Amino acid sequence: MSKPFSAALKTVAIACLGALGLAGAAQAQISGDVIRIGFITDLSGVYSDIDGQGGIEAIKMAIADAGGSIAGKKIELVTADHQNKPDVAASKAREWFDTAGVDILIAGTNSGTNLAMSKVAAEKHKIMISVGGGTSALTNEQCTPTTIHWAYDTTALAKGTGGAVTKAGGKTWYFLQADYAFGAALESDTARVVEANGGKVLGVVKHPLSASDFSSFLLQAQASKAQILGLANAGGDTINAIKAANEFGITKSMKLAGLLMFIQDVHSLGLKTTQGMYLTDSWYWNKTPETRAWGRRYFDIMKKMPGSLQAGDYSAVANYLAAVKATGTDDTDKVLAKMKASKVNDVFAKDGWIRGDGSMIHDMYLMQVKTPEASKEPWDYYNVVETIKGEAAWTTKAESKCAAWK
Amino acid sequence: MTEIFGVPVQALLGQLMLGLVNGSFYAMLSLGLAVIFGLLGVVNFAHGAMYMLGAYVAWLGLDGVDLTHVQVGSQVLNLGIQFHFNFWTALLVGPLVVGLVGVVVEKLLLKRLYKLDPLYGLLLTFGLALIVQGVFLQFYGSSGQSYDTPEALSGAINLGFMILPKYRGFVIVASLVVCFGTWFLIERTRLGALLRAGTENPSLVQAFGVNVPLMVTLTYAGGAALAGLAGVLAAPVIQVTPLMGSNLIIVVFAVVVIGGMGSIIGSIVTGLVLGVLEGLTRVFYPEASNVVVFFIMAIVLMIRPAGLFGKEK
User: For A16, which of A51, A87, A330, B180 is 20 to 30 Å away at the CA?
Assistant: First the structure.
């Protein structure tokens, strides 16, 4: 065989291999020929109202708005109930990434489950967007390169309610704190903000999670003679604490500040019990014509108005799909880079952006619950008292312990 | 002001009072469990679900139910059901409805398990509780519904050492009346004697012409009705949610174990005392308030395995 011929053969062979490789790369644009979104949240427990089935429907709305497919590849949604158990959440996430071809994980409620899933997603190098988890650790000491925190965190809640109420003259605080990681984070974050604004914390009483009765804790709070009772708890605990505070007339001598309250909590307690309370949230359906329109669309499906987490679920998925569409791939690095380079402009947030620590920076709202007389229709519950602009609401770079952001 | 371990006596008295309120609920719930276990040998894990049902009956009554225009597809059906009742009616309707549910459960399911190991009854009732809870979650959501305190009992009384909401005072009185009424019925009347004899030796009592299966059904229904009544009483105090029973049932079981499985008086006394002890824990070391009951249970089981009032067999 002559040398030139063998050289030519080599070139052809290499070209063929190259073409094969290219074809392979083209096929890998959308892995498994389907864009598969995994959603793990509490579907049957205490937090199933604030996210749950409503979150599933909101994600379905985002998929429908994206046309159900991108470049001919179908968008699929798989869901699971973690029953508020971190181990269940983590093993489901692992199973999905390993065997079910899930491309992105949307994490619903509960900080503990979110932290567990965030580690699995980082290990598998897949994007996880936390919508319902509250703990700021997700983007602080336990931040990962693949985790995005979409809706809110304990720092933003503390800066919102703690800051505004203290500035408005609520100088002395007493905390009712749920005795676990989330409650402790919320209490210490808020206490710091209160003190930074010239306020004083007179005491804290820690109650067990899902306490059956709050009256004795409340009497201790009342004895402190503080002006503000900060509720550093969530869900059923917040609801029962507010109910008992009304029954014992504590609301007459102290003002209640719910540090984590959702519209579903207010709905179930009623305005008579909750009127005048301050709370911070990332979204409220009755704020602009755009949010109202989206809220009504959701209402037609769920027969309830959406809360901030459901709107956040919608927004997170819509922005992920937009990034997939723009890059033409579901590759983690490319989509993540695209998402971080784009602004979030939708029904949930205006001019939001994803920071180096994974926080999606957007406005938060300090709201006050309306009186029954001021409410014009069902679910018309809040007056927006103050808009906490973009970065003012979140952990600053100086405060952050996120290694990836240094 | 006098202080005990740094806590003013006045505040302490207030906390004791609140403990007594919680103890009243424990007593009423553990009483139902003790009756069912003592006379039927069934570990009724559905007790929490029945307590929740009672609360929901009250809430549905106050909210009003109108099933005269039910939309099924394109058709509007008239089911002829429309009702609305207040708290006082709920105190009767609640236990009645839950009692009827008890009859159905006993006749349809539990009856078939008496010859088997008690474990089967436990599993059955546990499963039932999960199903009922799941159905209610589906319909009413997890954040639950708010039930207003009845007008006549709203407001508070100044006891000198504390401001006690009238309703909480009413709960203590109602619970004591119900508990001692039940105790009297079972321990001091002819019907109670027959019941106890019937569970001790059913065939002998049946030979005397007593309808033992009916008595057993009624006992289960009675126990369930007690849970239902506790549920109605709890509705104005805590949020009515599908999970309210499951939060409480474990503590109540601990109360029954401490009092002595099946002992009527044991469950009443233990319920009240543990409520008070739990209340005191909330003052001195709040973090431990939900484990103190189990701590006491462990100690009691070590010293008296049959419970404080139980009889060794």
Answer: A330
Are the C-beta atoms of residues B35 and B182 closer than 8 Å to each other?
yes
φ and ψ at residue B77, rounded to 5 degrees: -100, 145
Q: Are A382 and A369 in contact (CB under 8 A)?
A: yes
Say if CB B287 and CB A179 are below 8 A apart: yes
Per the rule left: phi > 0, alpha: psi between -120 and 50, beta: everything else, B239 is: beta
CB atoms within 10 A of CB B83: 12
C-alpha gyration radius of chain A: 24
Q: What is the ipTM of this complex?
A: 0.84
Helix (H, G, I), strand (E, B) or coil at A389: coil
Question: What distance in Å separates residue B166's CA from the closest CA in chain A?
Answer: 10
What is the greatest pairwise CA distance in chain B? 71
pLDDT at B56 over 60: yes
Q: Mean per-residue pLDDT for B22-39?
A: 92
Identify the CA nearest to A99 among candidates A32, A25, A26.
A32
Helical residues (DSSP H) of B41-161, grouped into ranges: 47-63, 87-108, 118-140
Output the pTM of the full model: 0.84
Of the partner residues A49, A207, A213, the one whose CB lies closest to the CB of residue B142: A49
From the list B15, B238, B247, the residue facing A219 with the nearest CB is: B15
Going along A150-254, which residue ranges are E strands? 172-178, 200-207, 228-232
**Residue A253: strand, helix, or coil:** helix
**H or E element in which residue A217 lies:** helix A215-223
Q: How far is CA A85 from the centre of its chain?
A: 18
Does A267 contact chain B (CB < 8 Å)? Answer: yes
The residue type found at B108 is: L
Reported confidence tier of residue A23, pLDDT bands at 50, 70, 90 = very low
List all residues of chain A from 15 to 54 with a beta carbon under 8 Å from chain B: 44-50, 52
Q: In this structure, are strands A353-354 and B156-158 parallel, antiparallel, or unpaired?
A: unpaired
Q: Tell if the CB–CB gap between B142 and A206 is shorter than 8 Å.
A: no
Query: Which pLDDT belongs to residue A172?
Result: 97
Q: Are A384 and A287 in contact (CB under 8 A)?
A: yes
Distance of alpha carbon A187 from alpha carbon A204, whole angstroms? 9
* A210 contact B CB<8A: yes
Q: What is the 3-state secondary structure (H, E, C) of chain B?
A: CCEECCEEHHHHHHHHHHHHHHHHHHHHHHHHHHHHHHHHCCCCCCHHHHHHHHHHHHHHHHHCEECCCEEECCEEECCCCEECCCHHHHHHHHHHHHHHHHHHHHHHCHHHHCCCCHHHHHHHHHHHHHHHHHHHHHHHCCCCECCCCCHHHCCEEECCCCEEEHHHHHHHHHHHHHHHHHHHHHHHCHHHHHHHHHHHCHHHHHHCCCCHHHHHHHHHHHHHHHHHHHHHHHCCCCCECCCHHHHHHHHHHHHHHHHCCCCHHHHHHHHHHHHHHHHHHHHHCHHHCCCHHHHHHHHHHHHCCCCCCCCCC
User: Structure tokens of A165?
Assistant: 């109420």
Taking an 8 Å cut-off on Cβ atoms, the answer to whether A270 and B279 are in contact is no
Tell me how far apart the alpha carbons of residues A312 and A294 are, in angstroms, rounded to a whole number: 12
Q: What's the average model confidence in pLDDT over B73-78?
A: 77
**Helix, strand, coil % (nearest 5) of chain A?**
45, 20, 35
With contacts defined as CB-CB under 8 Å, which chain B residues touch A181? none
Q: Which two tokens stand for residue B132?
A: 């009922």
C-alpha–C-alpha distance, residues B131 and B106, integer Å:
16
Structure tokens at B124: 């059955």
Using the Cβ of B206 and the Cβ atoms of chain A, whether some distance falls under 8 Å is answered with: no
